[in-house]
Amino acid sequence: MAEISNSPVKILVIDDDRLIQLVLKQALQAQGYEVILASSGIQGLEQAHKHYPALIISDWQMDEMDGLELCRKIKSEPSLSSTFFILLTSRKAVEDRVEGLDTGADDFLSKPIDVNELKARVRAGLRLYQTNQELQKLAQDLQLQKQLLETELNEAADYVKSILPKPLSGLISINSRFFPCRQLGGDCFDYYWLDEDNLAIYLLDVSGHGLAAALPSISIHNLLRSQSLPHTNLYNPSEVFHSLNKVFQMDKQNNQYFTIWYGVFNRISSQLTYASAGHPPALLFSPTTDSDLQVQ
Fold first, then answer.
1. What average pLDDT does the chain have?
2. Is residue 161 one of the residues assigned to a domain?
3. Average pLDDT of 236-246?
4. What is the pLDDT of residues 8-20, one digit of tens each?
């Protein structure tokens, strides 16, 4: 994509009639444009690749490669497709204009050439070209911002995954699978020993998705993992919920809320003390005497 700069706007004139070349060149140079000349479609295509003009004026009827074929090739090139293309023709039939437009031509200029009409159509074409360039630049900027945002979200998602607990083995074995429905969200879980006999387990879900949900989730995780909830007995699920409810009031958390299941398992007594705050219930699978499983 060629960008418009402070240098003169480049216009490529393609015509096998030397007189028409000179008329167009003189009229356009008088307007401050840089004019490049070509005498055939093949030469014109070479000049287009060399100079990347903002606007092309090409005769329709030419040997070897006519204006339609040249227009088709220009518009099929990503680096030239935004170039404004004017077909120069003496054809008046509507079918011819339709064929030219279907090929990719942006405008037409009738022969014999009226210089005032030429200047007006060039000005209009360049306005559209510049608007198109600005839109392409905006699209590129948006794409870059999207890529940067996706990179940051991926990094944040990797961090969330990194703080999740590793599988536990030994006196008690714990394994887990984490399948987020989106790149980043408010789901989190953890398990860790409060002491050598008591294992804390929790699963929480902050409302919503994205970074807004992930940040409170990480905050809660860090509070519980560091055991730094003020004046809280972490062995007592109801106290944990009471403290979390005080710390994470909705009106101070941008109306974000979370559900949580929290339990403490004592390995000596095999007793699980738990509570649930709006969260789906846990399932207990117990083996039976007939090698089946009882679900509670």
1. 89
2. no
3. 95
4. 999 999 999 999 9
47: domain range?
10-140
* Whether the Cβ atoms of residue 113 and residue 83 lie closer than 8 Å to each other: no
Torsion of CA 102, 54, 117, 98, to 10 degrees: 0
Note if the bond before 287 is cis, omega within 30 degrees.
no
Residue 200 neighbours by CB under 8 Å, 6+ apart:
190, 191, 192, 193, 194, 224, 234, 262, 263, 264
Distance from C-alpha of 216 to C-alpha of 222, rounded to nearest angstrom: 10
- pLDDT-derived band of residue 3, with 50, 70 and 90 as boundaries? very low
Domain assignment present for 63: yes
Token pair for residue 154?
Answer: 């991926």
**CATH code, 193:** 3.60.40.10
Of the candidates 181, 202, 149, 137, which has an alpha carbon nearest to the alpha carbon of residue 4? Answer: 137
Residue holding tokens 């287009």? 48
Task: Identify the helix (H) or strand (E) that includes residue 193.
Answer: strand 185-193
pLDDT tens digit sequence for 67-86: 899 999 999 999 999 999 99
Asked if the structure places residue 126 within a domain, the reply is: yes
φ, ψ for residue 211 (rounded to 5)? -65, -35
Cα distance between the two ends of the chain:
65
- Report the 10 Å Cβ neighbour count for 134: 12
